[in-house]
Amino acid sequence: MKNRLKDEELVTQYLVTSQSTYTELLYRRYAQKVYRRCFSLIKDPVLAEDFTQEIFLRVLHNLPNFKERSTFSTWLYAIAYNYCMDQIRHANRQTTVGIGEELIQTLTDEESDTIEFQLSHLSRVLQYLPADERTLLRLKYEEDQDIKALAHTLNIKDSAIKMRLKRSRDKIRRLYYNLA
């Protein structure tokens, strides 16, 4: 009987009774889908599993806030996407741009100083971009994701990804020279 209940009915029953069987059913229905969504964003199976667990803990904690303005699955996927993007942003903030040791050894002091200045300046410029633009650029150029993967991840058309990348690159170019 419980298996046939709609997601929203399971949420309501859980909120009324606090019986974990209702949330277990939701977990069984959506855990693999959330995992696949996380994996498509981060490409790391272990992290995707950890993120999935954390997302379901957050969902459980926030079930009283579910207002049925959308379906449960839409609400869940929004939480999953936002959590993954937050984790990516956090990781990107901690990532530093590095130059290979072999390359550094072949550069003169002047060239090395110039490159360090340019990278430092670029890093400052990136901070002026909105987080979603920074994330898109990092996924494309640091994580080397192709246009199709980005489009699938963000659930938009390839052409929209290309346009967003172009606009972000143009914005960086303007900021780079204006802030120099």
TrEMBL record:
Ranges for domain RNA polymerase sigma factor 70 region 4 type: 122-172
SUPFAM superfamilies hit by this protein: Sigma2 domain of RNA polymerase sigma factors, Sigma3 and sigma4 domains of RNA polymerase sigma factors
Entry annotated with the keyword Transcription regulation: yes
Lineage: superkingdom: Bacteria
UniProt similarity note: Belongs to the sigma-70 factor family. ECF subfamily.
Organism: Arsenicibacter rosenii
Protein name: RNA polymerase subunit sigma-24
NCBIfam families for the chain: sigma70-ECF
Domain RNA polymerase sigma-70 region positions: 26-93
Keyword Chaperone: no
An example Gene Ontology biological process: DNA-templated transcription initiation
